[in-house]
Amino acid sequence: MGSTILLAASGLTPVTADSPNAERIEDLYWVLCAIAGLVLLSVAVPLVLFVFRYRSRGRDRTIEGPQIHGATRLELAWTLVPIGLLVIALAFTFYKLPGITLEAQAGERELEIRVEGRQFYWQYEYPNGAIAIDKLRAPANTLVKLVITAPDSDVQHSYWVPGLGGKFDAIPGETNDTSFKAKVGVYKGQCAEFCGTQHAAMLAEIEVIPVDEFDSWLEQEAEAQEAGDSDLGEEEFLGACTKCHGPQGEGLVGPGLSSASVSDAENVAQIVRNGRGRMPAVGEEWDDRQMDALTSYLRKRFAEEGQSGG
Amino acid sequence: MAARTEPPPYPVPWTQGRVAGWVATVDHKRIGVLYIITSLVFFLAGGVMALLMRTQLATPDTDFITRDSYNQLFTMHGTTMIFLVVVPIFAGFANYLVPLMIGARDMAFPRLNALSYWLFLLGGIVLLGSFFAEEGAARSGWTAYPPFSAYASGNGQDLWIVGLHILSISSLTGAINFIATIHNMRTAGMSWMRLPLFVWAIEIYAALLVIVLPALTAGLTMLLLDRTGWTNFFIPDEGGSSLLYQHVFWFFGHPEVYVMILPAMGIISEVIPVFSRKPIFGYKAIAFSTVAIGFYSLLVWGHHMFTVGLPFGLQIWFMLASLTIAVPTGVKIFNWIATTWRGNLIFDTAMLWALGFIGVFTIGGLSGIFLAIFPFDWQVHDTYFIVAHLHYVLFGGSMFGIFAGLYYWWPKMFGRRLGERLGKWHFWLTLVGFNLAFFPQHFLGLLGMPRRVYTYRDDDLWTAYNLVSTAGSYVMGLGILAFVANVVWSRKHGERVGHDPWLADTLEWYATSPPPPHNFDKVPYVTSARPLRDLRRRMAEQDS
Ligand SMILES: [Cu+2]
Ligand SMILES: [Cu+2]
């Protein structure tokens, strides 16, 4: 019982904020709620009161109320008091604003990650060149700056992980940035700007892990990607292909994939780079390392399935 | 047989036939009725689209309709409700009422007026017909942001643009006509400060349309050209700017919001005093606030673009300007409430809708304040919080106002009242259903659910809120069914009324119900904003 009440109550607030900027936006939310509540009361109370108090009770339509045409003082009051409330809201906004646009302090470590929105996946690039798809790993309690954009040939998206702050649009030809600083945990989000058939499937996730764990992971990951024995191929398949070709590659928006259709690496690379028919050029700007990771993964995966399924 | 001879039957000109009388009419009242009925039919179509979407969203991972159908539906639902329902139905009200309210015989340009209506019908057919185009209707949202809308395959998007072009011409000619009529055809004594507040609202409605529709037309023309491949205004891959489109679109789009709410506020300003048996409180304040809202609405378009990365200074400017609009809006609300103070409040259905309007519209206005604070908007922009907000102002605002107006003026238009019993069912079902459907959507937005998604992740609260919302939408559907039943019922059984059933204030109630083609045999000299009440009092004095 208590827990259901708690659950219901928690549903009336934004997602729990876990980054200083998101926390300050949540503070703003509560101040705005207070002001809005006050105004709502000042409308609802007289409205309900008058409706009840001055209802006709069978009086004839011909009976008129007093012929009052207005009152300048009242007009002034309900012009000036709302202005006052708005000034309070604004003052609080400006007070919180610097903390919402998180900046690195002098000497503070800042990790910059490039985020590209693409139909229908997120591609992240770490400073050392390592690539990740949809799921981002980030160090705890470190300022992480996201530079958000989209390839020129793509459409508009919007990157949003509500627990870590506001959303910013990924616009072809423009860059936006935002930062967060979070505790260890997993934060979910998704694309917020309609971008096509599978917009709803364009999910994002940020996994925040302890700093040293992150540092060693990142180094290994970059090396593995260089050497071609990372999980990048699988990530690419899950992020970039399954949304159209089905979670198992069994077919959804696009046709099912089979060992026949993916065994020729040249051909797959061709299709992924240039698109074909209704399939967009999902990997137009992928480099060879990325493409090789994908094609070798696909070959392996569908060859195995061919055997086990046969 | 005596020499009594029948006169030869007088040849009725073909233009007065049962059908031709409507097709060939240039009478502002018939055109107004055509507008209103057509918009209501489109309203039912848009409502069915909404119910299909809510059914799809009732639970996560539903396979009720396909992704692409869903995307077409949300695009066409928004476009229909805005361009085929709210904007034209106000043109219908204005057509019917403005000449009557200002004591004129017709609009300034009756033929242009007929053209406006027929273009509206044509635009509607093109838009809704686009469902049958190759690959179906447009599916890039009513905002049609490029580059997506520029790349979208099929012809739906092209027909969408052409349909909007036709509708823009229709609205533009209509708006010019209203302005010409209001400025030139007021009867003797009808000064600006005696103009009914609904006419004030239409004046600003028309002025805004004249100012902003050309921007929409320009933007859509560029988009259409981009789609043909001849130009690249909005295509970043070829050096264009997709942000440019957003600026152009919202320069039109935000004032459009006020185009859709000011006339509803005008209706409320007519209904509340009549059913409170009092004069409107603060006539001048309400009239000037209409002008102020219209003016400021031209300066705030950027609040739809807080997440695109506008320079900080601009975001602050758009926040300040947007908040400013809250002040004249509040002035209206408090004046309406003050009007009911010490009145003799009669709760006919029209009044219920007007009072309901004050309640729900206030909620929509307040959530608008949240959105104007740009850091908060970074969180809720493009989420269900926006969907909730816009339905509180466009359904809770515009549609509640429209229903108030329909119940109020129906006897004038058709000579019979709509039924009170069905009217009350209509009101209460819609009010309850509306709040059930849209209030939980605020929380969905806060919890992270974006708009324009055909499905969502399975999370206890998301699922619960969505289910409630869908149930609410069905209750609203029942309310609308009660309205349709009421319209049908009233054709035969509605109480016949005389020229002035509500003991109202304004000149349209001086004419018979419905009025003759020329409206008035003579118009009384207007000495105040309430000429009809003056007349009733003069007659009462003569009697005694
Ligand atoms: Cu998207
Ligand atoms: Cu706006």
Structural account:
The complex is a heterodimer of chains A (310) and B (544). Chain A has 310 residues and is of the alpha+beta class. Chain A has 3 domains: 65 residues, no CATH class; 118 residues, Cupredoxins -  blue copper proteins (Immunoglobulin-like, Sandwich); 76 residues, Cytochrome c-like domain (Cytochrome Bc1 Complex, Chain D, domain 2, Orthogonal Bundle), CATH 1.10.760. In chain A, 45% of the residues lie in helices and 17% in strands. In chain A, strands 3-2-1-5-8 form a 5-stranded mixed beta sheet. Chain A has a 3-stranded mixed beta sheet with strand order 4-10-9. In chain A, a hairpin with a 5-residue loop joins strand 2 and strand 3. In chain A, helix 2 packs antiparallel against helix 3. In chain A, 37% of the residues are buried. By secondary structure, chain B is mainly alpha-helical. Chain B has one domain: Cytochrome C Oxidase, Chain A. Chain B contains 16 helices and no strands. In chain B, helix 14 runs antiparallel to helix 15. Chain B is globular and about 85 Å long. The chains are: A alpha+beta (310), B mainly alpha (544). One copper (II) ion binds next to helix 8 of chain B.
SSE blueprint:
The complex is a heterodimer of chains A (310) and B (544).
Chain A: H1 2-10, H2 20-53, H3 72-100, E1 110-118, E2 121-125, E3 131-133, E4 135-139, E5 143-149, E6 157-159, E7 168-170, E8 176-180, E9 185-190, E10 203-209, H4 211-227, H5 232-245, H6 259-262, H7 265-274, H8 288-309
Parallel strand pairs in A: 1-5, 4-10
Antiparallel strand pairs in A: 1-2, 2-3, 5-8, 6-7, 9-10
Helix pairs in contact in A: 2-3, 5-8
Chain B: H1 20-23, H2 28-57, H3 67-101, H4 110-129, H5 148-151, H6 156-184, H7 197-228, H8 242-276, H9 283-297, H10 312-340, H11 349-372, H12 374-380, H13 384-414, H14 420-446, H15 460-493, H16 531-543
